[in-house]
Design a protein that fits this description.
Distance between the termini: 42 Å
Largest sheet: 3 strands, mixed
Strand content: 5-15%
Helix content: over 70%
Shape: elongated
Radius of gyration: 25 Å
Number of strands: 3
Number of helices: 9
Order of helices and strands: HHHHHHHHEEHE
């Protein structure tokens, strides 16, 4: 995990923990459903940051007999768990609170709510800044969604989307409380809570989809694939590349298998030397490729 990614996670944990405490205090004194939903949201986000760090630590465990390629996919598994928790706890509890409030509507207007919301927006904005700075390093001129699809490090876009959902939720909570008081409509606070739950459900679904793709196995990006093909094709012993397959075990741990047709006049020693040469060149330019398996076949096979 890059230093920027860990910094973003620690910033999110610290900010969410402080914000959750203040939101729960405000919800206790005001009885606001939207504020309680926001408190639950921040508490879930705090735990999610811890799970992402746990996933990183578990992914660093060395290979063993049952996991010969290591435990890199632990990071992807725990990212999927985070998405499930955002949906079940964050989104589910927010919708439940909203529906409950609609059954017993009350208008909540207190300076507590506005102070806490202003405080939360500042801290969430700081957390969002660190998350975006970490994610920006992966964009490389791409758009946000293109970069997310290409990213193999779920920690960066998970924290970014959590913070985005948090900021949107804070805006919705403010509107629900403010408009509920302004229009003397007690239902708007509950509606705001349901909208917050819907936002979290959408974000959770998107994160689950991306984590699933990484968990079941994604190859390297097209630029890296093209670079590998160029390295192999440029070797004088290679006649053609019959098959090239890659898979990420973690952001910095990639499996590469190559099925190469070598020139038919080469002897075994020359082919062995070519294989070693190719492995060294590939690893020099792409150190994330930790496992390379090359199958040499006859050109006419």
């Amino acid at each position: 995990m890059q230093t920027e990614s860990r910094t973003a996670i620690f910033a999110a944990i610290a900010g969410n923990l402080a914000i959750a405490a203040t939101k729960f205090v405000a919800a206790f004194f005001t009885g606001s459903s939207a504020m309680l939903s926001e408190g639950i949201h921040s508490l879930v986000d705090t735990g999610n940051g811890g799970l992402l760090l746990l996933g990183f630590r578990m992914s660093q465990k060395p290979p063993d007999a049952n996991h010969p390629f290591g435990h890199g996919k632990e990071l992807y598994f725990w990212s999927l768990v985070v998405a499930i928790l955002i949906f079940a706890l964050g989104g589910g509890m927010s919708v439940y609170e909203g529906v409950t409030h609609l059954s017993h509507p009350q208008v909540h207007h207190s300076i507590w709510n506005y102070v806490v919301l202003a405080f939360a927006i500042v801290f969430e904005s700081v957390s969002f800044y660190f998350a975006y700075r970490a994610f920006r390093k992966e964009m490389s001129g791409q758009g946000v969604f293109e970069a997310i699809r290409a990213s193999k490090d779920p920690t960066t876009f998970t924290v970014l989307f959590e913070d985005t959902a948090a900021l949107l939720g804070l805006i919705v909570a403010f509107l629900g409380i403010f408009l509920g008081h302004l229009l003397n409509n007690p239902y708007l606070d509950g509606v705001a809570s349901i909208v917050i739950g819907a936002i979290l459900a959408v974000v959770a679904g998107f994160l689950a989809y991306e984590s699933k793709g990484l968990l079941i196995g994604e190859g390297v990006d097209p630029q890296t694939l093209a670079s590998i093909r160029s390295i192999v094709s440029a070797d004088p012993a290679v006649e053609e590349i019959k098959k090239l397959l890659t898979m990420h075990f973690s952001p910095d741990d990639v499996l590469l298998t190559l099925d190469i047709g070598f020139k038919k006049d080469l002897i075994a020693e020359e082919i062995a030397a070519a294989v070693n040469r190719l492995e060294n060149k590939i690893r020099d330019q792409h150190p994330e490729i930790k496992h390379i398996f090359i199958e040499a076949k006859s050109l006419y096979e």
